[in-house]
């Protein structure tokens, strides 16, 4: 599973847990429902702005981790 797919799955799982429909979340985040669908299914690479709106609504946090090389 790619990172984009993992992000989408986390968003979908949290949205389902909170019992929010795709339409409701899309409206709250001011993005199109098709865009949200593509984000959740790993078919889109969301902008940081869109991702921040979605995660704020869902009570999630965006973090950056550095891999050891």
How many angstroms does the end-to-end distance come to? 21 Å
What is the ordering of alpha helices and beta strands? HHHH
Overall number of strands: 0
Structural class: mainly alpha
Radius of gyration: 12 Å
Give start-end ranges of low-pLDDT stretches. Answer: none
Shape: globular
| Total helical elements | 4
Largest sheet geometry:
none
Percentage of helical residues?
A: 55-70%
> How much strand?
under 5%
Describe what this molecule looks like in 3D.
The protein is mainly alpha-helical. The chain contains 4 helices and no strands. The chain has helices spanning about 5-15, 20-30, 35-40, 50-60. Helix 2 packs across helix 4. The longest helix has 15 residues, at about 5-15.
Briefly characterize the structure.
Helices cover 61% and strands 0% of the residues.
Please supply descriptive tags for the structure shown above.
69 residues; mainly alpha; 4 helices
SSE diagram, text form:
Elements: H1 3-17, H2 22-29, H3 33-40, H4 48-58
């Amino acid at each position: 599973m790619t990172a984009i797919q993992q992000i989408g799955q986390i968003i979908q799982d949290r949205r389902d847990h909170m019992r929010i429909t795709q339409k409701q979340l899309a409206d709250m985040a001011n993005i199109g429902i098709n865009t949200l669908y593509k984000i959740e299914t790993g078919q889109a690479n969301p902008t940081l702005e869109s991702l921040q709106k979605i995660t704020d609504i869902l009570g999630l946090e965006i973090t950056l981790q550095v891999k050891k090389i």
